[in-house]
Design goal:
This protein has 494 residues and is mostly beta strands. It has three domains: 63-181, Immunoglobulin-like; 191-365, Immunoglobulin-like (Sandwich); 370-492, Cupredoxins -  blue copper proteins (Immunoglobulin-like, Sandwich), CATH 2.60.40.420. It contains four helices and 32 strands. The longest helix is centred in the first third of the chain and has 21 residues, at 13-33. The structure holds CU-O-CU linkage and copper (II) ion (CU).
Length: 494
């Protein structure tokens, strides 16, 4: 019998105390809002939260131990001939693809060689709370020059990603794909393209852009609007949009053979850009979003907000084709080549016909049969009103700018309905940590998601099985909106 890997946390007593104090402090605002006066927040490394990890371990007795080293450091990176100062994982833009099987005991030794504190968040994974990488909520930030071992079991297969969760570091290059395979369901495709989309600054850092946004008195640029996004398309115009770290002038090339079935895993890792993605001369069949299966739908293009993922399968034709991710409403695009045969590469500014119609959104998707949340009356309904404006540059939830917040409280075992209402003129890709909710629909057909675009004026309800105790942040995945405070805590109490 192989020895069961240790699931214990490698926390020093001092760290544990500091974390405890942090949580108590953050929990204070919440204590006032809990009516029975006796409930207290379930801490990230409490027995209840650990029990979740232990149950996962029992569910996957054959999980192998998989270890990675991940080093974050300042590096110079060549982006289409421009030498850019960046912060990277393992010297790569994007970071290395981390690939594991569902149920594996994953240990990632994170070495922070940045000149700043950092953390790593495993976006979309129903992880145990203490490993979620949210500074001051689930762990103390990891100081410059030190290490931390992340230790978790990914319980669901699919397309995920990882990134720093410390303010405005992500846009410097700290993101990468995390793919969870299911060894019990062999791949039914011949080739795979992992497509990490990002927006890229040159000569400015995200904190400088944030300062400009906060001090500027100008209105949102009028040309940055998009009907598909229901209004403002973003706050920042970027000099470049990238596919796998490469700009249109020096594109990534994906290779396949004619007739092959290819799975395209699209991940939007950008800070402020939604993309409309199409493959020239092909239709795509969308099969998954945010890791979870949907009833397959054919489409020419998909609209993907920051933090979202879409998997699509494509049957390849013979030739060279443009994979275009239009920076929605921003008049520019990211571009890569897909080559299956001879031919001249298309121009990087090409606009394939497939981009013209309505892009696929969650409204077009139903959860696959096995992925549906059973319909159930919510035990509790929680409201998150998204507010704010460009001028002044303020973004908040329920009239509070994080780190000020009143937690949305839930008890383990409840079915929670978390309702996001967008009162602003801009879309917000809202993300909840630690859970894959269902977009709320009376018939239970709503797709499972961890990040969802909420359009201006829209109210979008999500249904959550509260089965992962701890303290979970929910926030806008626009990194500037998060930095301004558009976040709150989905807090388990007992
Ligand atoms: Cu992708 Cu809170 O993050
Ligand atoms: Cu936002």
């Amino acid at each position: 019998m192989p020895r069961r890997p240790e699931l214990d946390v490698q926390l020093s007593r001092r760290q544990a105390l500091r974390l405890g104090a942090g949580v108590a402090l953050l929990g204070f605002a919440g204590a006032c809002s809990i009516t029975d006066g006796t409930a207290s927040a379930v801490e990230p490394d409490s027995p209840q939260a650990r029990a979740f990890a232990e149950a996962k371990a029992r569910q996957f007795p054959l999980g192998k131990r998989v270890e990675f080293d991940l080093r974050a450091a300042p590096e110079e990176v060549d982006v289409g001939g421009a030498r850019c100062a960046a912060w990277l994982y393992d010297g790569q833009l994007p970071g290395p693809i981390l690939r594991v099987n569902v149920g594996d005991r994953v240990r990632v030794l994170f070495r922070n060689r940045l000149p700043a504190e950092s953390t790593v968040h495993w976006h979309g994974i129903a992880i145990r709370n203490y490993m979620d990488g949210v500074p001051d909520v689930t762990q103390p930030p990891i100081p410059a020059g030190s290490e931390f071992t992340y230790d978790f079991i990914p319980p669901d297969p699919g397309t995920y990603w990882y990134h720093t969760h410390v303010d405005l570091q992500r846009g410097r290059g700290l993101y990468g794909a995390l793919i969870v395979d299911d060894p019990g369901a062999p791949a039914d495709w011949d080739a795979e393209f992992v497509v990490v989309l990002s927006d890229w600054l040159i000569g400015r850092t995200p904190p400088q852009v944030f300062d400009d946004l906060r001090s500027s008195t100008t209105e949102a640029t009028p040309e940055m609007t998009s009907p598909a996004l229901g209004g403002d398309a973003g706050d920042v115009v970027y000099p470049m949009y990238l596919v796998n770290g490469k700009p249109p002038v020096d594109p990534t090339t994906f290779m396949a053979r004619p007739g092959q079935h290819v799975v395209v895993r699209i991940i939007n890792a950008s800070d402020d850009t939604a993309f409309r993605v199409a493959l020239g001369d092909h239709r795509m069949t969308v099969t998954h979003t945010d890791g979870f299966p949907v009833e397959p739908v054919d489409t020419d293009s998909v609209l993907i907000g920051m933090g979202e993922r879409y998997d699509a399968t494509v049957v390849m034709r013979d030739g060279v084709f443009p994979l275009v991710a239009k920076a929605e409403g921003k008049g520019a695009q990211a571009f890569a080549l897909v080559r299956t045969g001879a031919g001249c590469p298309p121009n990087p500014t090409v606009a394939p016909d497939e981009l013209r119609g309505q892009p696929l959104t969650i409204a077009d998707l139903n959860a696959a049969e096995g992925a549906r949340l059973p319909t159930r009356e919510p035990d509790t309904t929680l409201l998150a009103t998204l507010g704010g404006s460009m001028d002044p540059y303020n973004w908040m939830i329920n009239d509070q700018a994080y780190p000020e917040y009143t937690p949305l409280t839930v008890r383990e075992g409840q079915r929670a309905r978390l309702v996001y209402t967008n009162t602003t003129a801009m879309y917000h890709p809202i993300h909840l940590h630690g859970h894959t909710f269902a977009v709320s629909r009376a018939d239970g057909s709503g797709p499972r998601k961890d990040t969802v675009i909420v359009l201006p004026g829209q109210t979008l309800a999500t249904d959550i099985e509260a089965n992962n105790p701890g303290q979970w942040i929910t926030h806008c995945h626009n990194d500037y909106h998060l930095a301004a405070g558009m976040a709150t805590i989905f807090s388990y109490v007992s």
